[in-house]
Every structure is written in C-alpha cells, then in structure tokens.
From TrEMBL:
Keyword list, A-Z: Membrane, Transmembrane, Transmembrane helix
Protein's name according to its UniProt entry: Mechanosensitive ion channel domain-containing protein
Chain segments annotated as transmembrane: 12-28, 49-70, 76-98
Organism: Flavobacterium fructosi
Domain Mechanosensitive ion channel MscS stretches: 97-160
UniProt keyword Transmembrane, yes or no: yes
First-listed, main subcellular location of the protein, grouped into a coarse class: membrane
Pfam families for this protein: MS_channel_2nd
C-alpha cells in the first residue's frame, strides 16, 4: 500500500495523460474525417493520414509518460540521440520513402487534384497526360490516354509542373 502512495503523483499524471491521449485521438480522427468528407477524399486515404497522425500522437504520449515517471533527462537524451542516429542512417538510405509519405500527406490536405482528374505532367524527359486512378501513401496510380497504367511517386507530383486538363466535378467524361 505504501508503494501506491509513493507513486500517487505519477499515477494521477498517467491517468490525466491517458484521458488527454484518448481525447486527442478521437478529436483528430473526427476532424480529419470531417475535412475529408468536405473535400470529397476517399476513405482509404483518410485512414492513412489518420494512421500517421496517431503515430505522432503515440510518440508524444510516450515521451510525456517517460517524463511523468521521472526518467532522468540525461538518460532520455542518450536514448534519443542513439535512436536518432540509427533512424537517421536508415532514413538516409530510404529518404525517398519518407519523402513520398510526407508528399502523400501534403496531397491529402492541399488536394490540388483528385481521383478522376485528368492531369498533364510537364516532365522534360517524359511528359504525358493521364487520369488519376488512385492516390496511395507512396504513389499515384495514373491511367494514360492509351490505357497504360503508370505508377508515379508522390514526391515527383510536388516537384513537377502539373496541369489539370479535366476536373472530375466539372467534366465527368473521360476518353477511354
């Protein structure tokens, strides 16, 4: 029983943190879904963004939990610097994956184009027109006018010039 009284502040802090954690997850999920509904975004894209936001919240809550339970600051910095070093080396080798995920989130919230739009990609070496079939976490699936499926990385959509030729809400017909 004395053990519980020794850690009463930590237990209360953990309870408050748990309440904030659950509330924050529910609130962000509701806000992202409301935003997705108003911008006519597909369900699976919405779920991807929610998953990324929940991961960020989980990391923040873990750090807060470690601080509540009194792990010494120097131990936290040693652990974080070690983890950052390992992750940094891994991400240096896989920077394009992180870039594509970030681009996918930017495309979700800025939505300059949507599934069903016909776009023209102004690439010096390989310009083409295509209809957006799907937008995933890493790639955009495009169908050219010839019926060819092209998988295009999200980060290149933000780097290249794009013209929207036909918008799905303005012009519903697409040349098959």
């Amino acid at each position: 029983m004395d053990l519980i009284f020794d850690y009463i502040k930590e237990l209360i802090g953990t309870g408050v943190l748990l309440t904030i954690y659950i509330s924050l997850r529910l609130l962000t999920t509701k806000l992202v879904r409301r935003y997705a509904k108003s911008s006519h975004t597909l369900e699976h894209r919405t779920n991807l963004v929610i998953k990324y936001i929940h991961l960020f919240i989980n990391i923040l809550m873990f750090i807060a939990l470690v601080l509540i339970w009194g792990v010494e600051t120097k131990d936290i910095f040693i652990a974080l610097s070690s983890i950052t070093t390992v992750v940094g080396v891994a991400m240096f080798a896989q920077w394009s994956i992180l870039s594509n995920i970030t681009s996918g989130i930017i495309l979700f919230f800025s939505f300059p184009f949507k599934i069903g739009d016909v776009i023209k990609i102004h690439d010096k070496d390989f310009p083409f027109e295509a209809e957006i079939e799907d937008i995933g976490a890493f790639h955009v699936y495009l169908k050219t006018l010839d019926g060819e499926m092209v998988i295009y990385p999200n980060n290149l959509l933000l780097q290249k010039g794009i013209s929207i030729m036909k918008n799905q809400f303005i012009d519903k017909e697409f040349i098959d």
